[in-house]
UniProtKB/TrEMBL annotation:
Family note: Belongs to the class-III pyridoxal-phosphate-dependent aminotransferase family.
GO cellular component entries: cytosol
Gene3D superfamilies named among the record's database cross-references: Aspartate Aminotransferase, domain 1 (3.90.1150.10), Type I PLP-dependent aspartate aminotransferase-like (Major domain) (3.40.640.10)
MF annotations from Gene Ontology: pyridoxal phosphate binding; transaminase activity
Annotated protein name in UniProt: Aspartate aminotransferase family protein
Keywords (A to Z) from UniProt: Aminotransferase, Pyridoxal phosphate, Transferase
């Protein structure tokens, strides 16, 4: 066969980039927390790909359950019931926040959010506005892209969905309101009340409990409870986007559990199947579920509730439990966090280290004024930043880490061991010396 990298490069799209300069590495196999290219080179997956390969590669139980379903019933219209669908729903009831009792199954995080927005607008009609944040990613189709606050939305403008209103985010390292925690009184959260009352017609608020691709921003402990209180008082639906933060990533089944918050709608994907198959889930509370008893649930896809994808959900939950991954994540998360904080002591180019569980970012700066190495504008223009050079260098050294304009996201598969964390940290440690040299 002609070089697969060449065919892939010429006949398929590399996403969120100019096609020129794309040289995709041909990956042939993977096992545990490692994947391998066609030359036999081994890479430690230090980001779980896109923060989604939560169980690592080659989990036999999940593979067997999927194979079994494929042999039994590979597809049936979503209008029918199947045992698999019942089992997926029952197993979700064991792990989701207790108030969420009904599920819509799709095939991606983007679709899970599209569903959530449509549901919130149907329930709250004629209210239609959705409050979102700047430092946010919710997906790549019309509604989810319009809610996305980062540079990826700019490409779509002006053809975005109407009715999106923004509030600032709890990004304490660079507070958008120029305030300091805790004297700020969590103004970024309390301001939501003002926005909802003055906008009028607000149907819902969508928030990543911990901002993901935009730099793993962990909010102060008061933040999410305040947002919950304000949305309840104003009778507005709270949607938490747990596409990245769900499924043990933070040491809890879902990140909202860290603050004892129950959203009205929770969206998730990625870790729901540990990415053995594409899955999206929109989970809603009883009140929303009951609304649709006498109102049409005006939504659906051909691949909605696909039996083979649903077979992965209970299998994955069984594995999370069998491997006691929530406890493992808490222990490994503490270790990883401590090791990253040690790096900060040694490298002046590290401005901030933040995270929870196995979900961390190091934010990189090029001077004492916290100037970033790259910006959203650079990304929008397709410019390569020093952080891109750094991640490329790490790949050469056998460590896969995904980066933003001026940060690295360190989020290994939840099964990672201390020894493998050490391997990743040591390589990052060495590689950061090159950025330190650019620090002024
Ligand atoms: C918080 C969040 N929401 C939504 C999405 C979109 O999910 P998908 O890429 O599966 O469509 C992502 C993807 O990274 C995400 O991180």
């Amino acid at each position: 066969m002609e070089d697969p990298s060449k065919i892939v490069r010429e006949h398929t799209f590399g996403t969120w980039r100019k096609q020129k300069g794309w040289e995709p590495i041909n990956i042939v196999k993977a096992d545990g927390v490692y994947f391998y290219d066609s030359a036999g080179k081994k890479y430690l997956d230090f980001s779980s790909q896109l923060v989604n390969v939560n169980l690592g590669y080659g989990n036999n139980h999940v593979i067997k359950e999927i194979e079994h379903q494929l042999e039994n019933l590979q597809y049936i219209s979503p209008a029918f019931a199947t045992e698999t669908r019942a089992k997926a729903a029952s197993s979700l009831l064991q792990v989701m926040p207790r108030n969420l009792t009904k599920f819509f199954f799709s095939t991606s995080g983007t679709e899970a959010n599209e569903g959530a927005i449509k549901i919130s607008r149907l329930v709250k009609k004629p209210s239609y506005k959705v409050v979102a944040r700047y430092r946010a990613y919710h997906g790549s189709t019309l509604a989810s892209m319009s809610l996305t606050g980062d540079y990826r939305r700019w490409f779509t403008e002006p053809n975005t969905m109407q009715g999106v209103v923004r509030i600032p985010e709890p990004y304490c390292y660079r507070c958008p309101l120029n305030l300091k925690y805790p004297d700020c009184g969590i103004a970024c959260a309390t301001y939501l009340d003002y926005v909802i009352k003055n906008e009028g017609n607000v149907a819902s608020v969508i928030i990543e409990p911990i901002t993901g691709t935009n730099g793993v921003v962990v909010p102060p402990k008061e933040y999410l409870p305040i947002i919950r209180k304000i949305t309840s008082e104003n009778n507005v639906i709270l949607i938490t986007d747990e596409v990245m933060t769900g499924w043990g990533r933070t040491g809890e089944w879902f990140a909202v559990n860290n603050w004892n918050v129950e959203p009205d709608i929770l969206t998730t994907a990625k870790g729901a199947s540990a990415s053995y198959l594409p899955i999206g889930i929109t989970a809603v509370n009883k009140e929303i579920a009951e609304f649709f008893e006498d109102n049409i649930f005006a939504h659906g896809h051909t691949f909605e509730a696909h039996p083979v994808t649903l077979a992965a959900i209970p299998a994955v939950i069984e594995e999370y439990k069998r491997l006691d991954l929530l406890s493992h994540v808490k222990a490994m998360g503490q270790y990883l966090g401590d090791r990253l904080k040690e790096l900060k002591e040694r490298h002046k180019s590290i401005g901030d280290v933040r995270g929870m569980g196995l979900f961390w970012a190091i934010e990189l700066i090029k001077d004492s004024k916290k100037t970033p190495f790259g910006t959203y504008e650079d990304k929008y223009e397709g410019k390569s930043t020093p952080v891109d050079v750094l991640t490329k260098r790490l790949m050469n050294d056998g460590i896969y880490v995904f980066g933003g304009p001026s940060w690295l996201v360190i989020s290994p598969p939840l099964i990672i061991s201390k020894e493998d964390i050490d391997i990743g940290i040591e390589k990052i440690d060495e590689t950061l010396n090159s950025l330190d040299k650019q620090f002024t």
